[in-house]
Every structure is written in structure tokens, then in C-alpha cells.
Amino acid sequence: MEVCVFMDASDQVWGAVATQIPPDDLSLPLEEQHHQPLAFLSGNFSSASARWPIVEKEASLSSRPASGSTIW
Question: What InterPro entries has UniProt attached to this entry (predicted)?
Fold first, then answer.
């Protein structure tokens, strides 16, 4: 199985989901892939990072550790 991570950010909060898909699905369009959820994460930005532009917030998510966030 292959793991995919999807992330999004807004003014104050962020969210992410990790899914797994069969390797053969990688060549399919996203809407035709068979994603199985593995984890859902969310959290708040600190007062300093809450002032960043959205594009910088989303870029920071790729290096954010899961500790201190809510895992669903």
C-alpha cells in the first residue's frame, strides 16, 4: 500500500489526513483512487504563525510533528 497525506490551513487552524491506496491506483486520477483513511490530525496555529500568509502556513505543515496535535 502507498501512503498519501493531504493538508490544509486556514487563518487559525490546520488539518491533515493520511490515507493508504493500492500501488496500482497511483496512476489513476485522484477521484478514482481507492483511499482508506489511516489518521486525521488537526491543530491551532500559535499567535505568531497565525499571522503568516496561508501559503506559508500550508508549507509549514509538511515539517510539523504530530505531537501536540489532535489525532482522530
Answer: RT_RNaseH
